[in-house]
Design brief:
By secondary structure, the protein is mostly helical. It has 18 helices and 2 strands.
Length: 377
């Protein structure tokens, strides 16, 4: 996204926006994250400086065209003197999305109900509705809404965004009594999205990933592996222009292998990235994850230590310590593993963002409550 944000095409917004980037893993940002909520990264807000209210919200990476539409939407929410009822409902949904997605669903539905036939923001409202249904875990409604809305959409970035949300809702609930019918409608749309040049890379990665999960839910490991290999081939063909792009490719590699595959296949690329990004603790974490998956426990512990030496924030430290504790446990070094888990728990309480903090504390507490294997103190 930094490459998109640096585009000279955004110069026309000079004077309209003050750009602010916040790291969710820094304590000084806790107040903002508590007030506005950001359960996913990246999350983008346009905030009215007069009253602090959100006029537009978008999660996930965007193409340049999507970003300009998003900025225009946010600016219109601040400056427009007259809005249609549908526009007002859409803006209300954006303001609610981060913290109250269930209420955002109702606002987006109202926007679609009030919209005139030629409303130019219909696809945006439909994509936003699908995303809000996903965020509020209304899996069936989300998958079926995505299938219905995406089928009639223009094949642009909003189409890809809607399909991605629908596929995640499908695999989050699958198997369910309704999922087979929803899959029959969504799977062809997902495959179509992969064939389109308008589908941004992040969405392509998410579609491959959900297709793998869908095939695994059918006990079709060969089918899942086929999609995984296609995805890895595509990732290997990408030529990252900067560290951010390199990290995005490596994250996708790890997500791929975590579903099905041989971690040894991607370890050379991850190790090369760690060497190329000597200050990036995330690069060490990815190496640690795959070394652990390959049962190279000493190498996983060493990678965790390298990552911890790269001064991550509380969330990064917690994650690295959990992986280290897991590798120690698998080596049979139970007492040291428990000591590291205790350190991870103390660090987790310092995570600024509420949801990641609570999730980490829950995972660590569960790990600490696991019974000690026989023969170990």
């Amino acid at each position: 996204m930094r490459g998109v944000l640096a585009s000279p095409d955004l110069a026309r917004y000079a004077g309209q926006f003050v750009w602010l980037e916040l790291n969710y893993d820094q304590e000084e940002n806790r107040a903002f994250l508590t007030e506005y909520g950001a359960a996913a990264t990246p999350t983008f807000f346009v905030i009215d400086p007069q009253d602090g209210k959100v006029t537009a919200t978008q999660t996930g990476a965007m193409s340049l065209a999507e970003l300009t539409q998003f900025l225009d939407r946010g600016a219109n929410g601040v400056f427009a003197k007259r809005r249609t009822p549908a526009d007002a409902a859409l803006m209300r949904g954006d303001a609610l999305l981060a913290q109250k997605p269930g209420e955002a669903v109702m606002a987006y539905r109202e926007a679609l109900r009030l919209a005139p036939a030629a409303w130019p923001r219909r696809d945006l409202a439909a994509a936003s509705l699908t995303g809000a249904l996903q965020d509020s875990q209304q899996w069936q409604d989300c998958a079926e809404t995505a299938a219905t809305e995406a089928a009639g959409m223009k094949r642009d970035a909003m189409f890809g965004r809607t399909v991605v949300a629908g596929m995640w809702c499908l695999v989050s609930a699958d198997p369910a009594p309704w999922s087979k019918g929803a899959a029959a409608r969504l799977e062809p749309l997902a495959k179509e999205a992969l064939s389109l040049p308008t589908t941004v890379r992040d969405h392509r990665d998410e579609i491959y990933r959900t297709l793998m999960y869908l095939y695994m839910s059918r006990k079709d490991e060969a089918g899942a592996a086929k999609w995984g290999n296609l995805w890895l081939d595509e990732l290997d063909a990408r030529k990252p222009l900067n560290d951010e792009a390199r990290s995005a490719v490596d994250i996708a590699r790890v997500e791929n292998i975590q579903i099905i595959g041989d971690p040894q296949r991607i370890l050379p690329a991850l190790i090369a990235s760690e060497r190329a990004m000597p200050r990036d603790w995330n690069a060490s974490l990815r190496v640690a994850q795959m070394e652990q998956a390959a049962k190279n426990y000493d190498e996983a512990i060493a990678a965790c230590d390298r990552g911890l030496a790269r001064t991550p924030g509380a969330a990064g430290q917690t994650w690295l310590l959990q992986i280290k504790a897991g590798a120690l446990m698998q080596k049979g070094e139970i007492a040291e593993a428990r000591r590291v888990l205790q350190e991870a728990l103390q660090t987790a309480h310092k995570i600024p963002s509420e949801q990641p903090r609570n999730n980490s504390i829950h995972r660590i507490t569960q790990a600490m409550e696991q019974p000690v294997p026989a023969g170990h103190p």
